[in-house]
Structure formats: C-alpha cells, structure tokens
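Exercise 7b. Backbone tokens:
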C-alpha cells in the first residue's frame, strides 16, 4: 500500500501499527510514520528541526516545486496529514546536487508537527 495519495480533499486514515513505536500527527493523532523508519534527526524544516524518514503513511502530497533549501535546490512536494490536512513537511522528489541524491524518495517530517508514541506497556 502506498503512503502517498494525491488529493486536495481529506481522506480516511487507514494505516495503523499496533504495538510499534510511531510518530503521530500532533493535531489529530493519525499515525504518520514508524519510528524505525527514522534516518536522521539532524535536518531543518520550515518551522524548526525535522526528521529525515524512509517512509510515511496517512499523508498526501501537494504540488511539486523546486525549492531552495540549506543544501541547495531540491524538487519537493509538501506532505499533508490525511486526518486533518496539517502540513507535516515535504517529500524529496529530486536533488540537483550529486551529494544530496540520498534524500530522493525520502520524507522530511517537522518535529513540531509530530507526537512520539512509544507504546510502552507498564503491566509487564
């Protein structure tokens, strides 16, 4: 199942990961990514720190655009939560600089837009 859906309307949130640590939307609590998909915490988003992720779910993409970022111009598309339409970050479609190609096909999710849920069980 693809985690990306292109649409300007809200869609139903469908993906859950029972008993796995996840990042959820800070606005509506929809699951956005498994914590295991985290590549790096050393990224910057529009509104502060960001996480580079292998994948994301329950998101839809906006329009593709060339955007000047700290590491050069990248072709990106903003990603939005399927649950509440909050902008969560962006998806890297293309990097112009060879040293930045590793970002292609990855997500930058803004830390301030996420809740870290560890799913601890205190009864064990």
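Sequence design result:
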């Amino acid at each position: 199942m693809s985690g990306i859906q292109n649409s300007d309307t809200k869609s139903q949130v469908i993906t859950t990961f029972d008993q796995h640590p996840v990042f959820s939307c800070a606005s509506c609590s929809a699951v956005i990514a498994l914590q295991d998909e985290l590549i790096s915490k050393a990224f910057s988003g529009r509104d502060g720190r960001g996480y580079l992720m292998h994948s994301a779910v329950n998101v839809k993409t906006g329009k593709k655009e060339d955007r000047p970022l700290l590491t050069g111009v990248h072709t990106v598309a903003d990603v939005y939560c399927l649950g509440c339409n909050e902008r969560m970050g962006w998806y890297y479609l293309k990097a112009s600089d060879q040293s930045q190609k590793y970002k292609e096909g990855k997500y930058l999710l803004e830390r301030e837009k996420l809740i870290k849920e560890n799913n601890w069980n205190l009864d064990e």
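Instructor comment: The radius of gyration is 14 Å. The longest strand covers residues 59-69.
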